[in-house]
Amino acid sequence: MQHAFEPLTPDLVLDALDSVGLRGDGRLTALSSYENRVYQVQLEDGSAVVAKFYRPERWSDAQIQEEHDF
Questions:
Q1: Distance of CA 26 to CAs 3, 8, 32, 55, Å?
Q2: What is the CATH number of the domain that holds 58?
Q3: DSSP of 22-39, one letter per residue?
Q4: Among 22, 52, 66, 67, which residue's Cβ finds the most Cβ atoms within 10 Å?
Q5: pTM (2 d.p.)
Q6: Considering its fold, how many domains does the chain have in total?
Q7: Which domain range does residue 65 map to?
Q8: Strand 48-53 relative to strand 37-43, pairing
Q9: Is 4 part of any domain?
Q10: Does residue 5 belong to any structural domain of this protein?
Q11: Which DSSP category does 66 fall into?
Q12: Is residue 2 part of a domain?
């Protein structure tokens, strides 16, 4: 089964951010990550965020929450 993670394109990254109210200006930089997809995304307001997309079925919700709490 193919997940949306596999064909993750810049448009999908920007759409994901837009879905939570963050408007990217189209500039993305892929950051190094061994098993996830991580991008620095420039926003329309001049700020930047790091967006991390976790590999499906690799991390439990509890593990992701633990990382976010860290």
A1: 23, 15, 19, 23
A2: 3.30.200
A3: --EEEEEEEE--SSSEEE
A4: 22
A5: 0.77
A6: 1
A7: 10-69
A8: antiparallel
A9: no
A10: no
A11: H
A12: no
Q: Output the six-digit token pair for 62.
A: 């509890």
Residue 40 structure tokens: 């620095």
Q: Which two tokens stand for residue 68?
A: 């976010």
Per-10-residue mean pLDDT, the chain, length 70: 67 95 96 90 97 83 82
Cα torsion through 26, 65, 60, 37, rounded to 10: 20
Structure tokens at 8: 């993750």
State which amino acid sits at residue 1: M
Cα angle value 49/52/55 (rounded, 5°): 170
Has residue 1 been placed in a domain? no
pLDDT at 34 (0 to 100): 83
Query: What is d(CA 4, CA 56) in angstroms, rounded to the nearest whole number?
Result: 9
